[in-house]
Amino acid sequence: MVFGVVFRTALYERYYLFPKQAKAWAQLRAERAEPPLDDGWNEYRGCLHAHSELSHDSAISFPDIVKALKKAQVDFICMTDHYDDGKADYSLGWNGLHDGILFIRGYELDHGLMPWGIPEGTVFSESDEPRALAKRIRELGAVLFFSHCEKDRMWDLPELEGMEIYNIHPDFMDEDFARLAPRILLCLRAYPDQAMRIIFDRPTEFLARWDDLNKTRHITGIGANDSHQNVGIRGFYTANKTLVIKGTGEKHEIIGEYALNFFTKLALGTFFGPLEPGREILRFELDPYERSSRYVNTHVLAKNCTEKDILDSLRAGRVFVAFNMLADAKGFVCFIEGRSGKAMMGESIAMESDMKLKTAAPNRCRFTVVKDGAKIAQSEGTVFVFDVPGPGKYRVEAELNILGEWTPWIYGNPVEVLPAPGV
Predict the structure, then answer these.
(1) Can you tell me the distance from the alpha carbon of 415 to that of 308, in angstroms, rounded to the nearest whole number?
(2) Residue 326 lies in a domain
(3) Cα–Cα distance between 16 and 30 in angstroms, integer?
(4) N vs C: which end of the chain shows fewer Cβ within 10 Å?
(5) Neighbours of 87 (CB within 10 A)
(6) DSSP structure string for 307-348
């Protein structure tokens, strides 16, 4: 009786919902087609807000990050490691191309400051006053974003150029862990992607903040992977014939050490292979780097996959956020076109008659046009052409119909339509 109550939702998901979801996601992959519109830019898939062994709460090495990103088909990664001994030292970690993956060095600083493009060798202190630090970041030519926008932030900061409109970590932390745990335990091995998607909630408050800020200034919206690979456990067999359990994040933290008898050693050897001292014999984790780095992605439109071009596009807002775990959003297009030319996401164009917003996606979806924070039009299909009614900032959202539920898929950055000259 108790088992049935505790695992009721988990059993429903494991044996009914998740198998149907897996088939629906596979069907989306099968139906994918290249959009008929072309924006003229190259598109690069990024993992933004990511940690490594330089952070206290991540143990993953840079070579292992490369392996994970290649599996996830990620082109570039913007690192955001934590302070070490109160310092953010920009001579540490990887930068540049490594086995085809572009690394952009970075730190997650206090007060949510998250700059990229800081010159190598720069050192910031945890005690730096935030407004003075933001000015220095601007002087160094870097681009500055806010992380963890669920927290209080200095939204009037003039140096701010972008913000996270989604972050995996706060989405995970707002869950009821007593209810989440049995669902993860029962479903993770058979349906790992669906199990991770349990945490998803629409980022309604983040989007409202973003739209409000964009009424008076330019703020680029990005998706934050917040990759750590630290939600799980590892088991090691020791020379003392014990089983040591560690977390997957904290490098040296030991959760527990357990003596093994004949039967427990036999069971471990049967299920996990030979018991050799020092060998990791088991690993159970919700957030392997490969999975978190494709849960959500920030797609950047740029000429080349170089640090300068990627950061220029992030600053400009030639960017869209996509939940690629559901379906690959590569090829999504959104621009506004008139007789005098067209403007991409992050760009502006003067208002003229017969101006059109054009958007297309690789799967059938529901497009929603948002103008200055208000939803003004919707259409289902793979292409939507919309008559632009007047000046304002226009962005497009796309949702997938998965088992009868409209599920957020893509958030495009705004295109600005300026008043016509002389008006």
Answers:
(1) 22
(2) no
(3) 22
(4) N
(5) 13
(6) HHHHHHHHHHT-EEEE-TTTS--TT-EEEEEETTEEEETT-E
In three-state secondary structure terms, 17 is helix
SS3 314: helix
Q: Look up the domain containing 241 and give its range.
A: 232-285
**Residues 294, 74: contact at Cβ < 8 Å?**
yes
Structural domain includes residue 263: yes
**Three-state DSSP class for residue 241:** coil
Mean pLDDT by 10 residues, the chain (423 residues): 67 97 99 94 98 94 98 99 98 98 98 98 98 98 98 98 98 91 89 97 98 98 96 84 81 80 86 87 86 98 99 99 99 96 98 97 99 98 98 99 99 98 74
Tokens 């959202």 belong to 397
What is the domain count for the chain?
A: 1
Tell me how far apart the alpha carbons of residues 19 and 328 are, in angstroms, rounded to a whole number: 20
Q: Is the pTM above the cut of 0.90?
A: yes
Q: Is residue 244 part of a domain?
A: yes
What backbone phi and psi angles, to 5 degrees, belong to 185? -60, -40
Token match 């970590």: residue?
Answer: 169
Q: Max CA-CA distance within the chain?
A: 87
Q: Do 122 and 90 form a contact (C-beta atoms < 8 A)?
A: yes
